[in-house]
Amino acid sequence: MQQKYSQRLFYVTGAVPPRQGSYNAAIADQTANLAIRGLLLFLIGVFLALVLNLLQVQRNVTLFPPDGFASIFSSAWWVPPCCGTASAVIGLLYPCIDRLLGEPHKFKREWSSVMRCVAVFVGINHASAKVDFANNVQLSLTLAALSIGLWWTFDRSCSGLGLGFAIAFLATLTTQLLVYNGLFQYTSPDFLYVRSWLPCIFFAGVITMGSIGRQLAMYEYKVVQEKTHQD
């Protein structure tokens, strides 16, 4: 009975069923792999936050209160860890949702595609900070089209689209609360204390981190399969 339950569990999670007597070891390996993926996603999120937020601060799009760390990282000390944590959650959530829905995401699942997705995301953020548009409406519509284009080019899954919209909404709401409480501010807010194009940036970031998370999960799955065949 226990063997049947363990086989069913590993079928749902997408892992390879372990041999009899190695169930605990397989669970420990899965936990360690999950922690490694989470750490990698956290570090990627921190790096992207430092680089992309530097663009916003240099163009005086965002302003932070004076702080010792702010002078070093061009942002408040809490921004990179928060972005890293959010990136880890998003990157781990995407493959989990795929497995729960029973629809493994296989569209453009290679590292070259993931790197192009990251490059497009950086370009969208760069455009929001440095490209001059006639008005904010034109800028917001342009970034919205680019963000949807990012999803269509590198994702095309309904789960990815739904999660992108939902997380972008929650992130925008959280940012509005932070600005309202004076933790930082935008120089020219035009949408409830923030910039109207901010949800587009969040949506593109969610799609990007979801793509990275899916690729890491697929790489881990291939490594586990190779180990199983060798054993």
From TrEMBL:
Residue ranges crossing the lipid bilayer per the database entry: 34-55, 75-94, 137-154, 161-180, 192-212
Biological process according to GO: cellular response to insulin stimulus; cholesterol biosynthetic process; SREBP signaling pathway; SREBP-SCAP complex retention in endoplasmic reticulum
Keyword set, alphabetical order: Cholesterol metabolism, Endoplasmic reticulum, Lipid metabolism, Lipid-binding, Membrane, Steroid metabolism, Sterol metabolism, Transmembrane, Transmembrane helix
A single GO molecular function term of this UniProt record: lipid binding
Pfam families: INSIG
InterPro entries: INSIG_fam
Localization terms from the record: Endoplasmic reticulum membrane
Topology in membrane: Multi-pass membrane protein
GO cellular component term, pick one: SREBP-SCAP-Insig complex
Role: Mediates feedback control of cholesterol synthesis.
Family membership: Belongs to the INSIG family.
Name of this protein: Insulin-induced gene protein
Gene: INSIG2
